[in-house]
Amino acid sequence: MELMRAYGSAALQLLSQPFYYVSCLIMVLAYIHRTRTERSLFHVRLHVWPLQLLRAAGWGLLAGAAVSVAAAFVGVMLTPDTVLWLWGTAAVLALLRVRYLCFAYSVGVLGLLQTASGMLSLDESGGAVGQAAQSLAALDIPGLLLLVAGLHAAEALLVRRDSAQLASPLYLEGKRGKLIGGYSLQGFWPVPLLLLVPAAGGSAVLPWTPLLGGDAWEGGWTVLALPVIVGFADLALSSLPKQQARLASRRLLLYSGALAVLALAAAYASPLIPVAALAALGLHESLALLGEFLQRRQPPRFVHDERGLCILGIVPGAPAEEMGLEAGEVLHKVNGQRVRTKEELYDALHENPAFCKLEVINLEGQIKFVQRARFAGEHHQLGVLLAPDEDSGYYAAKPHLSLLSLLRRNRTARRSSGGEGAAM
């Protein structure tokens, strides 16, 4: 009951922390930006951002509960100063790119700063510099790295679970300036953490001994709230979004495991702290760069070929969704006519205004036949988003955003030669 009361008090404390609302605001800006990009490129609304926000908040709450329970047996040394260091560093890094808001970068940077401060003996300096160095030296970097490892394990499960909601179709500039279709995989989850921490003069001794902290737990304990935002960003150019999300999920789990091992080693051998901090930074950045490099190196998936028109996406609620069409499939024939251009598709659809019969090459390379009656007043003739061609006039300007660009509400797309993309 004492634990229950402490966790309940910390939950109320979380609602009074501005960082929790800051994380929600960043999520709102990111989702609104994605909606604007989709409207600029395709003139349709593919995602409803308020529903996405509620969904992300629900899954983030469950992830936070799971990580908080696991952290109670780890024993992270958290103080109010630690919260300020983490969020202050994350805010500075997010000015460069939103994905740097991840605590893997914050803790990695703080670990390296702590090491550099100790080597320079800044904690012995006077004034504000000395006070900041002493506060920095008190940070439990190994414990924080273990917490980051747990958050990335939760992120891996969220990415795998929510892969369909993360995907947003894009036109991107490929090799030699040619436009290609692809998907931006981006998601944010607010993860409220309630962390059991040692505190002198706190509650009674715990009935178990956490992994880290040792004698510090003999003086009592308390529960502190730490709002966290978990973010994920990737590109799917040569593979389907679900395939790329599953691959990214496996990579995140490997990263989580490697970081946990290094953090435990650093907890018992302090000279390894800078090694673990550098790994938190380097491995995480390598995951992001490697994924995009491999995607751009392989042949693009969403381009037209001699078989017909490649489907980049499906408009929700449109006839194409009812017929079971999927992104990555190829429109081979429409009403018995071969289609290789948008103009040929448009003409074929008007061959029979009351009925639509399609021959589609599915994801396995097999022909499938689908058909449906067409009704007057339907907003879309078919409801498919096609991969770009030479007449497509807009492409995503910045797949990787900074916090400043979100706040400035900058343009989400750039004009190329020709017309604009739209739903057919």
Describe the protein in words.
The chain is α+β, with helices and mostly antiparallel strands. It folds into two domains: 2-297, no CATH class; 309-386, Pdz3 Domain, CATH 2.30.42. It is 48% helix and 19% strand. The protein contains 13 helices and eleven strands. It has helices at residues 2-15, 18-42, 49-74, 80-94, 103-119, 127-137, 141-161, 163-166, 241-268, 273-297, 319-322, 342-349, 403-408, and strands at residues 167-173, 179-198, 221-236, 309-314, 330-334, 337-338, 355-361, 367-373, 384-386, 394-396, 413-415. The strands form three sheets. Strands 4, 5, 6, 7, 8 and 9 form a six-stranded antiparallel sheet that branches. A three-stranded antiparallel sheet has the order 1-2-3, with helices on both faces. A two-stranded antiparallel sheet has the order 10-11. A hairpin with a 5-residue loop joins strand 1 and strand 2. Helix 2 packs antiparallel against helix 3.
Structural class assignment: alpha+beta
Helix content: 40-55%
Query: Helical segment tally?
Result: 13
Task: Give the low-confidence spans.
Answer: none
Label the overall shape. Answer: elongated
The domain tally reads: 2
For the termini, the CA-CA separation is 60 Å
Element order: H for helix, E for strand: HHHHHHHHEEEHHEHEEHEEEEHE
The major beta sheet can be summarized as: 6 strands, antiparallel
**Cα-based radius of gyration, to the nearest Å:** 25 Å
Number of strands: 11
